[in-house]
């Protein structure tokens, strides 16, 4: 079978590899669509992983083979899945911190989403894999995994009706989070981003305000929009560590700052720490998803409770992964979500 194999930043090869063998509790799917995640782009561009490796985890596909002990799925069914499974039985899992589980990152799809065929291991079959309706096209199905990630982050945000929410960064995670915030009851949703294209798309998706922080004073604009109170929730969805400082400055008393982005460069920042005690603000990190968000994400995407269709701006064939990553990583391009398609 074919796969796009990452060796280094400028060396991604579309090549033949062995099709994985499945075990008794596994299933094999033919990849139909796989989203190009911001983490995939970051890994490839910043070479934070060692090749050869096959990236990709936002997977939607068709079951083509099942293990002899699999009774839940049949050949020909349409499914989505995700990447990591917790053990449900450790110190962290017992307390609901499933993504902190030691097993979590050790579990994976084989060989990765950017391949023609993918083995879904038994644990993933049991806890992370779900059917999708025939009416849902493959590209939107590939958006279910990032929607689930955002749902996981919003659990910590504890959004109430009529809350105001600022999302810093208008990439896929930012715009999904912004729409979900509105779906959860927020009456005022603000995004900030340097990209004109992404700000305009945010407004098209129904976001109330879109701020260019290079041309407007973000803190002043947030103060104006919220009548001087600050926002109830800030979601950081861009890998710029200085945003933490700004987030602390614009969140209201008792508000919450949700950090949903890695900070590889200059991760040490200064904040007004007195606000933690005096104003009871919270700064909370969030990572990935748990099995409990997948079903909700499927319902949201299938019933079009948020608009993921207009977020998908480009598709690329599996054979052109390098070009897709280069295009998506270039800030000069009008691009949001790229979907990689298997060759027919």
UniProtKB/TrEMBL annotation:
Recorded superkingdom: Bacteria
Required cofactor(s): Zn(2+)
Keyword Phosphoprotein in record: no
A single GO molecular function term of this UniProt record: oxidoreductase activity, acting on the CH-OH group of donors, NAD or NADP as acceptor
Residue ranges of every copy of the Enoyl reductase (ER) domain listed in the record: 9-340
PANTHER family per record: L-THREONINE 3-DEHYDROGENASE
Name assigned to this protein: L-iditol 2-dehydrogenase
Source organism: Buttiauxella warmboldiae
């Amino acid at each position: 079978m074919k796969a796009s194999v990452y060796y280094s930043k400028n060396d991604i090869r579309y090549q033949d590899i062995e099709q994985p063998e499945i075990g008794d509790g596994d299933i094999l799917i033919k990849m139909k669509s796989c989203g190009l995640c911001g983490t995939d782009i970051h890994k490839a561009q910043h070479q934070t992983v060692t090749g050869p490796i096959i990236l990709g985890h936002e997977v939607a596909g068709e079951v083509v083979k099942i293990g002899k002990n699999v009774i839940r799925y049949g050949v020909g069914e349409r499914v989505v899945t995700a990447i990591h499974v917790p053990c449900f039985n450790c110190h962290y899992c017992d307390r609901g911190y499933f993504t902190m589980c030691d097993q979590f990152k050790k579990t994976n799809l084989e060989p990765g989403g950017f391949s023609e065929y993918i083995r879904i291991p038994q644990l993933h079959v049991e806890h992370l894999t779900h059917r999708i309706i025939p009416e849902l096209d493959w590209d939107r199905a590939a958006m279910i995994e990032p929607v689930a990630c955002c749902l996981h982050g919003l659990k910590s945000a504890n959004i109430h009706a009529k809350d105001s929410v600022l999302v810093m960064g208008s990439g896929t995670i930012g715009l999904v989070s912004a729409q979900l915030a509105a779906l959860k009851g927020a009456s005022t949703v603000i995004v900030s981003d340097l990209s004109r294209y992404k700000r305009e798309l945010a407004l098209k998706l129904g976001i109330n305000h879109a701020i260019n922080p290079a041309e407007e004073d973000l803190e002043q604009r947030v103060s104006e929009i919220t009548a001087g109170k600050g926002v109830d929730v800030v979601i950081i969805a861009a890998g710029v560590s200085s945003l933490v400082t700004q987030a602390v400055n614009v969140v209201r008393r008792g508000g919450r700052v949700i950090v949903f982005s890695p900070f590889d460069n200059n991760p040490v920042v200064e904040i007004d720490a007195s606000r933690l005690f005096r104003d009871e603000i919270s700064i909370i990190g969030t990572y990935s998803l748990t099995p409990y968000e997948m079903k909700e994400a499927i319902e949201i995407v299938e019933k079009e409770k948020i608009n993921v269709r207009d977020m998908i701006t480009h598709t690329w064939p599996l054979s052109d992964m390098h070009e897709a990553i280069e295009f998506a990583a270039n800030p000069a391009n009008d691009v949001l979500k790229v979907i990689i398609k298997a060759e027919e």
